[in-house]
Design brief:
This protein is 0% helix and 59% strand. The chain is mainly beta and 121 residues long.
Length: 121
């Protein structure tokens, strides 16, 4: 099955931390980039952080210095360590992976199911 499975969301108080994980199935290959997006009700889906197949990372200004994206290529997994959370971080967080299906020549975007992060005041 071609899928991304997210975990690690939950409810925390302001100032707390969460670590999100997103495991891509082994049938997704040749991954070039992995990213985290988030979407609050009524808002657009916005990029939070991205990590390339190399070591390059990029973050939204609102999370710089607080969030860290990392990846484990052996496990086909991307993580988002979130520290110093505030209520403005409340959203559904989605994992995004750019890669190919096993046996396919075509690159495409794969999305996780979303995991809810709620930060209380």
């Amino acid at each position: 099955q071609v899928q991304l499975v997210e975990s690690g969301g939950g409810l925390v108080q302001a100032g707390g931390s969460l670590r999100l994980s997103c495991a891509a199935s082994r049938s997704i290959i040749s991954i070039t980039a992995m990213a985290w997006y988030r979407q609050a009700p009524g808002n657009q889906r916005n990029l939070v952080a991205v990590i390339s197949s190399g070591t390059s990372t990029n973050y939204a200004d609102s999370v710089k210095g607080r969030f860290t994206i990392s990846r484990d290529n052996v496990k086909n997994t991307v993580y988002l360590q979130m520290n110093g959370l505030n209520p403005e971080d409340t959203a559904v967080y989605y994992c995004n992976v750019k890669g190919k299906r096993w046996g396919s020549r075509v690159y495409e975007d794969f999305w996780g199911q979303g995991t809810q992060v709620t930060v209380s005041s």
